[in-house]
Each structure stands twice: as structure tokens, then as C-alpha cells.
């Protein structure tokens, strides 16, 4: 193995990049196992990229270096970073190592093991969460013990969620269902769910289907069982580097061990405060303990300076995360080369429009900032994004959102709009086929629990008559006497259809705004609880209900009659490029806003970040569980706090925390805002950034004192002014939007 202690070209690279001593130590470390713990924005990925160039410079072959990233977005970002760095080096065309996600790696091994005859070929259509939950519910109904049958429907979600947890955690931890059941501390009355998990696996194998989890689980189980396969995969690499190790689970840790064998030296890097995938079996144990146990004598390194955000964001993040008890108490601190970051609370009774207005004001500065997408709006749940996206569209703000997540493609949004169409003045002028389709959607919203083929026949008859007309069912010959014989539906189903049609009739006759019509219909059909009940999990129920509520609030602010509201939405569809049923974008302006969830932002950063939904029940997210056990379950505050920590540490120049206006009736402000201690954080940062260099802030906390102590005791490294110059701070972004809520 080459001697990597000798000074090399990387030092030159390091010098021009103004790398810190902490970073240089890692880049130039000898090729041993290495464990790096680092704070958010401290240049973990940047340092890994430099380390790779250093290794290549020292005659390690690119083919013998493997980089494992957590997800696709992080992989793409890293590829870009490495390519750019390589382009600036004196060997711009040199081959670069393979960068893979864990799952891509698992899938590659899976296919190889099929070729070797150890695994069966699988259907390329990967099982979705929805399909898995649907199958679990089918099996639960098949095998539930007699004494639980009477409450099975009521506790549907609880059963599905527990069965899914047994399945997921067993695959993530490589434990059998029995042990997982015990570890999850599930009540004995649910022990039949272990059989459900096994029956699901039998079904899955019969159908040759695999899930996302199986891409890792199956090959690792195979490796555990077969020595020839272990020989096949091990010792192929000299160096393996793994990012985001704080979110590693057992199956990933084992895969890493098998790939490394006794040859590869492994570098792991991560930030325990950014662990946000516990629900997939992730644990800080792997970065803090297990790696040290399973890989011989790893050299420990730390990255403690943030280059992403300034003192305000650093102090707010430190105050917040300091409330977690189960952590290593490390402060993140802004490097002196880092421009200051403004932190503001955006208090508003109408979050969506407040954010859209803010972005209108920031747009020129954002465009000038030159970043590909200079602003990110981060949500806890996708349903939060519905009214925000609509407000962005209404303000003609070019944005980007995950495929399939757009508000106008959202099922509940489409259903609300169809309901409004059914109550609109131009109903009878609509083509017959359109009316039938709309009636079908109305009878599914909430679902009247009639089979689809019967429902289709029924809605074709209903489409012929006026929704405002009384006694419509009689008009199409559907009465208590005829319903069974003619349509094969029960009296109970008939009463549901009657209920929906009565609500539709009342809505059609209403002279109020679209919001009044919708609100009447929601109340009369008990829509929200019906929607919640139809979902297979609590989170899915919350998303459905919040999709409707988000749209309702948007329509309420719009305050237009039904026809005008529908026209407004037609215009939004055109703006979104959906006019002809295809999403193409109405114009080709580059997106200045990325609308996404905090879970999707691993390793990413933006000049301006807006974290939405700082209100109780959203941050921290409290599931509206229906089963008695779920409802009483305390929210995992530490996990939610880590999520907010990840969100707020994505900002470079400006961070906005969107919260309800006090006493506006739009919800209580999230306790996390108080936990950030913004008063103390901002006052302390003012002192640190003042040219006069005041001795101490007027308001102080233990965190502020430690922060000052750290800055004072360790000389901040010099020579980083170029780094700060490379990222000028947009002046527009520093203005106060709304008074800081204390
Ligand atoms: N020595 C340095 N001087 C100036 N800027 C730096 C330095 N090192 C890294 N940066 C910049 O700091 C920012 C954060 O770096 P990077 O994304 O690598 O951090 P990270 O630790 O991987 O982040 P996260 O905690 O989100 O995973 C980037 O904009 C990067 O270019």
C-alpha cells in the first residue's frame, strides 16, 4: 500500500481551498480505518472529496475505491462536487471512483447472486409501501384471532403499523420476527402479527416481489449463509468511504463489513445529531460504538467548524439540540470565514401566502445569488406543501417539487375540485362523460363503500340528473326496494349514497363562497373522519386530512364563488403546465424554489431556507392516532428535534422559521421556537459580528457562554478570507420581515 504520509499535491489543493487543519488532517491521514464525527455543514463531503483526490494522487486506483452514499440526491451532489474538484486539479481527466447508494450496491449484489444461483429472479416492479400495507391488511383479516375480530376494523391502522414495523425492523436489524416483536415491546394480544409478517414473506416470495428493504436484506442474508458469496464480494476494494453514517442500520453495517473484508480500509463520517431515519432501524450506536468494535482501531477525527451558516443559525441550532438528553454534547460553531446568517421568525395567520410574499420580495436577490435553486421550503409532511405550492403558482414563482407530489396531482385536491364542479352553475352544460366521471369521484369522497363496477353504472345514471334536484335516487329508480335487486347494494350502502347526495344537494343550493360550500360538505358527510378511517396508516390518514384542510384554507383566503374558484384553479393548472394533462411547466424559467421535506435534505444546502410549520402537532409531529394506544403515544421529541436541527442547518445566508401569528387561531407556536432561544442567539451573534467587538452579550445562556468560550480558547484558523469572499451575502435578505416572536 502506498505511503500516504508524504506531502502531496492535495496540500496545494488544500491551500487554494483554504481547508482547515482539521480537514487537512483527515485528507492526509494514513490509509487506516477512520471514524469522523462532524457537525452540520463542517465540510464532511467536501473533505471526503479531497481525501479521494489525495488517495488517487498517491497511486491508489480509482477502481479500488468505493464511495457509499445514503440516497440518490446525496450521491448526485457528491458526484458533482468530486468532478468539480477533479476538474480544478492538475489531472482533470483522471478516472474517478464509483459512487453508489447502499441500495444500488445491494441491488447489484442481488443480481449477481441470482446469476450465481443463490437467489431467485424478481419482478422488477418494486413493492410500494401502499402495496405492502394492503397485503398486510388482507392477511391480518385472514388470520386475526376470534377475540380481536370485533375491533379489527376500528384498530386497522394500529394492526397494519405494528405488522409493518415487525417486518421493517426485522429486515433492518437482521433479527427474526419473534425477537423484533419482543424488542418493539408489543402487547401479547398482537402476537399473531408475527404470523402475518411470515405469511407476507411467503406471499412475496411466491409472487417474486421485492421491496426497497429487500434490496439490502436478501443479499446480506445470503452473504451470512454462504461462504462462497462472501469470498466473491470481499477484498475487492482498497478504500471504502461512507457518508451519513449516523443513519446506518444493522443490515448496512453488515454489508459494509462483507465488502471491506480484511483488505479495505474504511472511512466513515457522520453527525449523530442528524440521525433522522430511526424508523428504518438507524442508530447512532453504529457511528459511536459498533464501527469501533467491528473495524480494527479506527483513527478518530472531528470536524467542528461550520462553513455553511453563521453564528445566529449555529447558536439557534445549539440551543435547540441541547435539549436532547441522549447525545454527545458537542457544539457546532461558525468558522470566521462564514458570512453571517440572518434568522427570522415569520409569524403569520396564513403561512402559504406569507411565504409566497416573502419569496416575491427575495426573488431579485435570489436570482442574483446565482445558485441553481437559491431557496428551499422545507416541510415536515408533504401535505403542508399543498397550500404553499398553490400560493407559489398563484404568484408565478418558478419552483421544483418531487415528481408525484405536486398539489394539482394530489388525489384529495382533485376530489375537492370535482366536488366543486358538481355544485357549479354550469353543471348541466358539461359533457355527459365528464359529469359521470365527476359523480364517480364525488361518491368516492368519502367512499360510499360500493364496488367500483356498480358505482360506475350508478354514476352514469346520476350524471343525467341535476345534483340540486330532490329525491334523485327515486328518479333513477333506486329505492330501498330496488337497490338490492337492481344494483346489488345493501340498505346500509344506500343510506351512504343518500347521505352524500343530500350533502351534494345542500352544497349545490348554497349561495356561499366555495369555502362555505366545501365546509358544509365536509361537515355533512363527516368527510375528515371518513378519509382518516379509509387510510391504512395514521400518517397516511394525517396526510389525506391535511391535504383537504390545506386546500380548504387556501380556498378560504381566496374567498371566491365556486365558478371563480374553479377558474382560478384552471389558471393554476395552466401555470403549472398541466393544462393539456401533461406536466411540462408553463414557462422555462429556472426554478428558484425547491419545495421538499426535511427528510429529503440530507447533505444539501441552500442560500435561503424556509422551514415551514412551526406549530404544535406539525413540529413536533403528533400523529392523530385513532386506536387508544396510538393516541396516547408520546411523540419522540428527541427525534423531532434532530429533524428540525437538520432543517435549520441547511441555510447559508438566511433562515426563516414559519410559525402561526400569536392568537390568530391558526395553532399554537411550536415549542422548538422557544427552545432555539433566538433572543440570546441573535444578541450573542450581534456581539460576535460587531466591528467594535463588545466584550459579552447582554443576554446570556449556558450555551452562549460555552460558545464564546470555545471561540476564545481555540484560535480560529487564519487565511480563510477567500472562502468568505467567494460567497457574497445578498443584501436584500437581511431585512426584517416581521417582528421576532418571543
Ligand atoms: N474549508 C472550507 N472553507 C470554506 N468553505 C468550506 C470549507 N469546507 C467546506 N466548505 C463549504 O461548507 C459547506 C458545507 O460543506 P459540506 O456540504 O461538505 O458539509 P457537510 O458536513 O457534508 O454537511 P452536512 O452536515 O449537511 O452533511 C459547503 O458549501 C462547502 O463548500
UniProtKB/TrEMBL annotation:
Pfam families linked: UvrD-helicase, UvrD_C
Keyword hit for Flavoprotein: no
Record organism: Allohahella marinimesophila
Protein's gene: rep_2
Domain UvrD-like helicase ATP-binding per the UniProt entry, residue ranges: 17-310
Protein residues bound to ATP: 38-45
Catalytic activity: ATP + H2O = ADP + phosphate + H(+); Couples ATP hydrolysis with the unwinding of duplex DNA by translocating in the 3'-5' direction
Family matches, as SUPFAM superfamilies: P-loop containing nucleoside triphosphate hydrolases
Enzyme Commission designation: 5.6.2.4
Organism classification: Bacteria, Pseudomonadati, Pseudomonadota, Gammaproteobacteria, Oceanospirillales
Protein name: DNA 3'-5' helicase
Record-stated family: Belongs to the helicase family. UvrD subfamily.
Domain UvrD-like helicase C-terminal: 311-603
Amino acid at each position: 500500500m502506498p505511503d500516504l504520509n508524504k506531502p502531496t499535491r492535495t496540500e496545494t489543493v488544500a491551500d487554494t481551498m483554504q481547508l482547515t487543519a482539521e480537514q487537512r488532517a483527515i485528507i492526509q491521514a494514513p490509509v487506516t480505518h477512520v471514524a469522523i464525527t462532524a457537525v452540520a455543514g463542517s465540510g464532511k463531503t467536501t473533505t471526503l472529496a479531497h481525501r479521494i483526490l489525495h488517495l488517487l494522487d498517491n497511486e491508489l486506483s480509482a477502481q479500488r475505491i468505493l464511495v457509499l452514499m445514503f440516497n440518490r440526491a446525496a450521491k448526485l451532489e457528491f458526484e458533482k462536487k468530486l468532478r468539480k474538484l477533479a476538474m480544478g486539479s492538475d489531472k482533470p481527466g483522471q478516472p474517478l471512483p464509483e459512487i453508489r447508494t447502499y441500495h444500488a450496491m445491494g441491488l447489484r449484489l442481488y443480481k449477481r447472486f441470482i446469476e450465481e444461483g443463490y437467489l431467485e429472479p424478481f419482478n422488477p416492479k418494486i413493492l410500494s409501501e401502499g402495496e405492502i400495507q394492503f397485503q398486510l391488511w388482507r392477511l391480518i383479516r385472514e388470520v386475526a384471532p376470534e377475540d380481536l375480530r370485533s375491533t379489527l376494523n376500528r384498530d386497522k391502522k394500529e394492526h397494519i403499523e405494528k405488522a409493518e414495523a415487525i417486518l421493517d425492523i426485522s429486515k433492518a436489524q437482521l433479527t427474526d420476527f419473534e425477537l423484533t416483536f419482543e424488542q418493539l415491546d408489543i402487547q401479547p394480544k398482537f402476537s399473531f402479527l408475527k404470523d402475518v409478517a411470515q405469511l407476507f414473506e411467503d406471499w412475496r416470495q411466491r409472487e417474486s416481489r421485492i421491496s426497497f428493504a429487500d434490496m439490502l436484506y436478501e443479499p446480506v442474508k445470503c452473504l451470512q449463509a454462504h461462504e462462497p458469496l462472501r469470498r466473491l464480494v470481499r477484498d475487492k476494494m482498497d478504500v471504502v468511504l461512507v457518508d451519513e453514517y449516523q443513519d446506518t442500520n444493522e443490515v448496512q453495517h453488515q454489508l459494509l463489513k462483507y465488502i471491506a473484508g480484511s483488505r479495505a480500509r474504511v472511512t466513515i463520517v457522520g453527525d449523530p445529531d442528524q440521525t433522522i431515519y430511526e424508523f428504518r432501524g438507524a442508530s447512532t450506536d453504529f457511528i459511536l460504538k459498533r464501527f469501533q468494535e467491528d473495524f480494527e482501531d479506527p483513527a478518530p477525527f472531528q470536524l467542528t467548524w461550520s462553513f455553511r451558516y453563521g453564528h445566529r443559525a449555529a447558536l439557534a441550532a445549539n440551543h435547540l439540540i441541547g435539549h436532547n438528553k441522549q447525545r454527545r454534547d458537542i457544539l457546532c460553531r461558525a468558522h470566521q470565514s462564514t458570512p453571517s446568517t440572518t434568522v427570522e421568525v415569520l409569524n403569520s395567520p396564513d403561512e402559504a401566502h406569507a411565504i409566497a410574499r416573502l419569496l416575491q420580495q427575495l426573488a431579485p436577490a435570489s436570482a442574483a445569488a446565482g445558485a441553481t435553486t437559491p431557496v428551499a421550503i422545507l416541510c415536515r409532511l408533504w401535505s403542508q406543501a399543498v397550500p404553499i405550492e398553490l400560493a407559489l403558482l398563484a404568484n408565478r414563482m418558478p419552483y421544483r417539487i418531487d415528481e408525484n407530489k405536486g398539489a394539482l396531482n394530489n388525489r384529495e385536491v382533485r376530489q375537492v375540485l370535482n366536488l366543486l364542479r358538481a355544485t357549479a352553475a354550469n353543471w348541466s352544460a358539461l359533457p355527459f362523460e365528464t359529469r359521470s366521471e365527476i359523480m364517480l369521484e364525488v361518491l368516492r369522497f368519502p367512499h360510499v363503500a360500493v364496488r367500483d363496477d356498480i358505482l360506475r353504472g350508478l354514476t352514469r345514471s346520476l350524471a343525467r340528473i341535476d345534483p340540486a334536484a330532490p329525491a334523485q335516487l327515486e328518479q333513477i329508480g333506486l329505492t330501498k326496494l330496488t337497490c338490492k335487486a337492481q344494483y346489488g347494494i345493501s340498505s346500509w350502502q344506500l343510506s351512504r349514497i343518500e347521505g352524500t347526495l343530500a350533502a351534494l344537494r345542500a352544497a349545490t343550493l348554497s349561495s356561499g363562497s366555495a369555502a362555505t360550500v366545501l365546509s358544509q360538505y365536509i361537515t355533512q358527510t363527516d368527510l375528515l373522519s371518513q378519509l382518516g378511517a379509509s387510510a391504512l396508516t395514521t400518517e397516511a390518514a394525517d396526510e389525506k386530512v391535511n391535504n383537504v384542510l390545506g386546500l380548504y384554507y387556501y380556498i378560504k383566503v381566496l374567498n371566491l364563488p365556486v365558478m371563480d374558484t374553479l377558474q382560478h384553479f384552471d389558471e393554476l393548472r395552466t401555470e403549472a403546465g398541466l393544462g393539456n394533462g401533461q406536466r411540462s411547466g408553463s414557462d422555462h424559467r429556472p426554478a428558484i424554489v425547491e419545495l421538499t421535506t426535511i427528510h429529503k435534505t440530507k447533505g444539501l444546502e441552500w442560500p435561503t431556507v424556509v422551514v415551514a410549520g412551526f406549530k404544535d402537532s406539525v413540529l413536533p409531529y403528533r400523529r392523530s392516532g385513532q386506536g387508544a394506544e396510538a393516541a396516547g403515544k408520546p411523540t419522540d421529541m428527541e427525534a423531532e428535534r434532530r429533524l428540525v436541527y437538520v432543517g435549520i442547518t441547511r441555510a447559508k445566508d438566511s433562515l426563516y422559521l414559519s410559525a402561526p401569528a400569536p392568537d390568530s387561531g391558526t395553532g399554537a407556536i411550536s415549542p422548538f421556537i422557544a427552545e432555539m432561544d433566538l433572543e440570546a442567539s441573535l444578541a450573542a451573534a450581534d456581539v460576535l459580528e460587531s466591528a467594535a467587538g463588545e466584550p459579552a452579550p447582554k443576554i446570556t445562556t449556558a450555551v452562549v457562554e460555552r460558545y464564546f468560550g470555545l471561540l476564545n480558547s481555540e484560535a480560529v484558523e487564519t487565511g480563510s478570507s477567500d472562502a468568505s469572499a467567494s460567497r457574497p451575502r445578498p443584501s436584500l435578505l437581511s431585512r426584517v420581515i416581521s417582528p421576532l416572536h418571543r
